[in-house]
Structures are given as C-alpha cells and as structure tokens.
Design goal:
- The protein is of the alpha/beta class and 346 residues long.
- It folds into two domains: 240 residues, Aldolase class I (TIM Barrel, Alpha-Beta Barrel), CATH 3.20.20.70; 93 residues, Roll (Ubiquitin-like (UB roll)).
- The strands form three sheets. It has an eight-stranded parallel β-barrel with strand order 1-4-5-6-7-10-11-12, surrounded by eight helices. It has a four-stranded mixed β-sheet with strand order 14-13-18-17, covered by helices on one side. It has a two-stranded antiparallel sheet with strand order 15-16.
- A hairpin with a 2-residue loop joins strand 7 and strand 8.
- Helix 1 packs parallel to helix 3.
- It binds aminoimidazole 4-carboxamide ribonucleotide (AMZ).
Length: 346
C-alpha cells in the first residue's frame, strides 16, 4: 500500500481543516514547497495536493504554489481542488502534475469527466468525499444528493480508473478511518481505491493495507507527529502498482497452490485482500470461503495447514500462485491433491 502525504493549500500556506470545515483551520507551514521536499526526503513516493481555495471557489487559486512544488520535487504529484474544466486539467498536466483529481464535476458534470478520461486516461482520478453516505462537492459545504454507490457506478461508466474515498466526518479528526465504509467502498468497485480521513496511527495504516486499498492519504497525523512518516513507510511495505493484485468485482482473486518441492498442483481457492494479508503475515495459507462467506484458515479444523514458501502473481496480476509445503493431504477427501480425478471419470 502506498502512503501518500497530503499538502492542503489555503492562501499559499499548508493547512489542515477539521472535517473539511473552512472555519476550523490549523496552519502547519508558511512554506508548502519546503514541506513537499521534507516529505520527499522522508521517503514518500507520491504527494497529494489539495487546493482548498480552489475547491471552494471552483477554480485553481494556489496554482503558483502547485507549480513551485511540482518543479522542485522528483516524485509524482496528484492535485485536486477547483478542477472544473478541461483547460484546467491541460494546464496542470503542462505544469507536470501526474494525476488530476476531480470532485465536484463528478457530481455536476459527468460528461466533462468522460471527456477528461478520454483525453487523459489514467491521469484522471475521481474523489468521492462522503458524509452520512452522500457525496459532497464544492468544498463539502452543501449536503450531498447522490449516494457513494451511485457516484461510483456513474463514474465507472465515464471511464474513471481510480478513486479516492474520503470520509468527511473523520477527516482531520485523528480518530480512526471508517474501516467499514472503506470496506464497503472496495466491494462496490474493482478499481483501485485510495482511502483518506481519520488516519492517526501506523496500526490504522496496517488495517487499511489489509482491506486491500491501493493507497492511504495521511494528513494531519504526519503534521502533529501522531504518525512518523518514515516509520510508517518502513512498516508498510510499499508495493508498486505493478504488483498490486487485481481482485475481481467481488473482491476475490483465485489462488493456485503448488507443492514447492515436487511442483504438483494441489488445490485452488479464492483469496480476498484480508486473507492474502493474513497469508503474508502468518506464513500459512488463508482463503475466503465463498460458501461460508468467511475467512478460512486452511487446516484450522483438520490440522492440514499449508506452509507458504513463496507467493507469486501472474503476468496480468489476476491469479496468485502459492508455492507451499503442505502439512498433510490438502484435499478434504484425504487425497494429497484436490486434482486426483480425470474429468472423464467424474
Ligand atoms: O476539506 C475540504 N472542505 C475539501 C477538500 N479537501 N473540499 C474539497 N476537498 C478536496 C477533495 C478533492 O481532492 O477531496 O478537493 C478536491 C475536489 O475539488 P473539486 O473542486 O473538484 O470539488
């Protein structure tokens, strides 16, 4: 999971708001460029910039600071806030911004999102910022009319390939992320999701990683010191997008188990993000049981655990191969492998 430091800009300064409320502001620095360089030097692989004045005014307001940051850092920068026209996207792209984040237009002008995706492809991200289940735009000041699920569906049909999901009620509160809603969001889309809002500890980041989100945006916590960015980056192995497994629309990925010593194929089952994370953490295979709809620690009842030697992923990232040393027979029938029958004998 990628940990992405946030730099929220207001009046040229680096600030944090409480629940997105413009009247509840803390200024953390007068020098956003220095801040950007500091996060880069700490090891961040990407920066998340928000033009808060832009989100409220409907047009970019901190473009000179954004330009200064982009020209000084090596790492890719994503920018949101006040992007309501194709021209603005083009302008930011020319500045060197790697990804442009759209919020309000996703609610008010889906055709513009569609056109943006056609022209800029994966450089376009849609930010879904929700309070009480409804998505807000325009600086989050007005109540939302569309549900999270409705906006996801609409945006996918416009060609959006990545989402940021923020729980407004948690944002800037240093409480904890809304894990349940993030999990639900993940189940509503097969596209990669970057989660934001409420992160206050490395434990929170680990839990988010286990939910299978691609990235986590950390704001206030790295400014207050609740999260030490360097420690967080070390603790959470940053996996590049290239090795991010592709879970299907149900959040599952098939996993083939092979005997690490003989090469024999032993079984196939499904994993979700959490079972994959548990497999990694415990060194024994965990799956997702589709019939029981629960996590399944293979061997927990039979004692026939599967000790994992190596986890591989195929070329298009949609199938996992577990090379393992099984403790006993893998198949519930008592056979060494589940593949003990010829199809024509079935
Ligand atoms: O904190 C807020 N009130 C706020 C905020 N952080 N309002 C909007 N935004 C961010 C969104 C997104 O990244 O999370 O601004 C961007 C969306 O801007 P726009 O102008 O496209 O709605």
């Amino acid at each position: 999971m990628e940990i992405i430091p946030a730099i929220d800009l207001r009046g040229g300064k680096c600030v944090r708001l409480y629940q997105g409320d413009y009247s509840k502001e803390t200024v953390f620095s007068d020098d956003p460029v220095a801040m950007a360089l500091r996060w880069q030097e700490t090891g961040a692989q990407r920066l998340h910039l928000v033009d808060l004045d832009g989100a409220s005014e409907g047009k970019p307001c901190n473009a000179s600071v954004i330009g200064a940051i982009v020209s000084r850092v090596r790492i890719p920068v994503e920018v949101g806030g006040g992007i309501r026209q194709i021209e603005t996207i083009r302008y930011l792209e020319r500045l060197g911004v790697a990804r442009m984040i759209l919020g309000t237009v996703a609610l008010e002008d889906p055709n513009l999102v569609k056109e943006a995706c056609r022209l800029f492809g994966e450089k376009i991200i849609v930010s879904i910022d929700a309070r009480d289940g409804y998505v807000r735009g325009r600086g989050w000041k007005e109540e939302g009319k569309l549900t999270v699920a409705e906006v996801i569906r609409k945006m996918e049909s416009c060609g959006v390939k990545r989402f940021v999901f923020t729980d407004i009620a948690r944002d800037g509160t240093l409480t904890e992320p809304n894990f349940e809603e993030i999990k639900r969001f993940r189940s509503l889309t097969a596209m990669p999701v970057i989660a934001a809002g409420g992160i206050a500890s490395i434990e929170h980041l680990k839990k988010l990683a286990a939910l299978g989100v691609e990235g986590a945006i950390v704001g206030k916590a790295i400014y207050t010191g609740d999260v030490n960015l360097r420690e967080a980056l070390t603790a959470i192995q940053t996996r590049g997008q290239k090795t991010m497994p592709k879970f299907d629309e149900k959040g599952l990925i098939p996993a083939v188990v092979q005997d690490a010593n003989t090469g024999e194929v032993l079984m196939m089952a499904y994993m979700n993000a959490e079972s994959l994370e548990r497999t990694r953490a415990s060194g024994q295979a965990w799956f997702w049981s589709r019939s029981r709809k629960e996590l399944w620690h293979k061997g927990a009842t039979s004692g026939n655990f599967i000790n994992v030697k190596e986890i591989l992923i195929d070329c298009d990232l949609d199938t996992i191969l577990i090379k393992a040393e099984p403790v006993g027979p893998v198949c519930h029938t008592g056979n060494r492998t589940c593949f003990y029958r010829r199809l024509d004998e079935v």
